[in-house]
Amino acid sequence: MAAEELTKVTRNGQVTLPAAIRREANVAEGDILAVRLEDERIVLVPKKLINKNQSYFWTKPWQEAEQEAERDIAEGRVHAYKDVEDLIAALEQE
What we know:
The protein is α+β, with helices and mostly antiparallel strands. It has helices at 19-25, 60-74, 84-93, and strands at 32-38, 41-47. The chain is elongated and about 70 Å long.
């Protein structure tokens, strides 16, 4: 863990995060940080934003389906088909 470092609040309340802290927290230019006050401490938490057009992926039903698919793959419940016609033929036999 990086040692405690000092920084200065500049005009408009801006603060520069020391390089060692940025590296350890994996924070880069343009990243989003949540800011909150906890017991007289200012806490910064790196956040990742999700594009609105991809938000469906993070819904509970979608994530449950993703987990089910990962279990199926891990347990070998998958099939490979040489082409689309082969896949359709297999689906029609079910």
